[in-house]
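Protocol step 4 of 6: structure prediction from sequence.
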Amino acid sequence: MSVTYQVIGASSTPPATGKAEREVGRSVRSPVLKARLRQETVARLRQLIEALEARNLSLPGDEDAERIYDRFIASYARRPMRDNAGGTMHNSSFWVFATAALLRPPLIVESGTYLGQSSWMMAEASPDSRIVTFDIVRERLRAKDPRVAYRLGDWSDDPEFRELPDGALIYFDDHISHRRRIEETVARGGALALLDDDMPGHALYATGAPPVPTRAMMQDADLPPGTRCEWERNGKVYAYDYTKSDAASGRRHIAWSTPMPDLTPVNLYVPQSPMTLIGLRAETESEG
């Protein structure tokens, strides 16, 4: 049986590299089908909004889900890093954008700048937020934006952020232990953190440098402390010993967690890395 679709034109979109090949230059064009894609994505954004409202979390952003989606599509189309292979791809970029648009935090601190796409997306989403991004590597090809302050080094070493203001959002996409990052945030008075690469213990092979113990591991009631987590990736075998103190830190510091809904079944782009927004208990609450 012959193929029945037609080739009706040619695209001028230049090819991408690596995993970006699965996204760049691949999009739906028919208005009816674009509307369907919008509808299904917005439905998942509404799931997130409902989950955050159930946490009694203040959402000062005055936009509905449709408006956030439309703004994201417009911003993503003009992003400075068209080919962001190795960095945040379409679906994770959507949740970074949506989280910033919903929370409108006075301060966003990002750990893990890489080429600068996430910080740029957050500046688009929440233009009144102060955004400071950290990385231990100075990337030659990094996008620069006047709305973002770029700093070299680890965020935890910067004396300016020894005390975080109310409503600050800390975004970790740096492949550093989630336990360490959570404890650093709590020690500085932070109450909100967005964690990327939040893999469960049975899927640590999904990224080259999982931030073990991940938040998902720390809140996994079926992962017994003392478990030796082993995984294989690209010809190497790795191991991490999950401890009682890892589990205790999760119980002590994490008040609630809300995973970002998975958009991969909607658009079949690069599989979305698990991303989770968490609420943290103050040190005094933890001690109580």
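Step 5 (inspection) to follow. The CA atoms of residues 48 and 260 lie 7 Å apart.
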